[in-house]
Amino acid sequence: MPSYDFALILSRPLYEEELDPLFDRTHGAVTVSIITEPQHAERPGNASCSWPGRTLAASIMDVVAYIEDSAPGLRVQRVEADPLLTIRDIAERTGRSVGSVRMAVTGGRGPSSFPSSELSSAGHRLWRWSKVAAWYDISDPQLREARPTTQAINGWLALRDVVPDVAPAPEDVTSALSAVIPIVA
């Protein structure tokens, strides 16, 4: 069974006391932002993981349920399945050395300019995997599945927040995506 990388944007970070139930459900495979003071509960939170599943949709829906069951009142608001990577992550995914990737980033190797980083913080830069994979001419079937799956699940997440009585059950969304992803991806 493949493992899928994705991140979830949460309505708020988790409190420390909510970590144990989440850890019990996910065996520590989900990394989340936490808060220690109530005044920080107004900020969005995030969760990221590499989760096994039959499909990306099944993996996402599993983790959504685990997170929301672990923290009463917390809601997943959005999913992102095109991960941000460090130079080390890029090296692992492409089978290259860290030095080789660093040379590509600085322009010392490769066909043209390396994709721009998406985020830079405290001297660390992160690149979007889809752009890096395209630059290295890597065909990643998980990326082909990611775009339609995340669009559909993000639509479902929005629908259940606006009109929860109309939103289909998670298993219905997963089933529908399983039927159409081989056609559209």
Would you write up a description of this structure?
The protein is α+β, with helices and mostly antiparallel strands and 185 residues long. The protein has seven helices and nine strands. Strands 3-5-1-6 form a four-stranded antiparallel β-sheet. β8 and β9 form a beta hairpin. α6 runs antiparallel to α7. The radius of gyration is 18 Å and the shape is globular.
Approximate helicity band: 40-55%
User: What would the principal axes of the Cα set say about the shape?
Assistant: globular
Mean pLDDT: 90
Lateral arrangement of strands in the main beta sheet: 3-5-1-6
Radius of gyration: 18 Å
Approximate strand percentage: 15-25%
Note the main attributes of this structure.
globular, 9 strands, 185 residues, four-stranded antiparallel β-sheet, 45% helix, alpha+beta, three-stranded antiparallel β-sheet, 21% strand
Quick overview:
This protein has 185 residues and is α+β, with helices and mostly antiparallel strands.
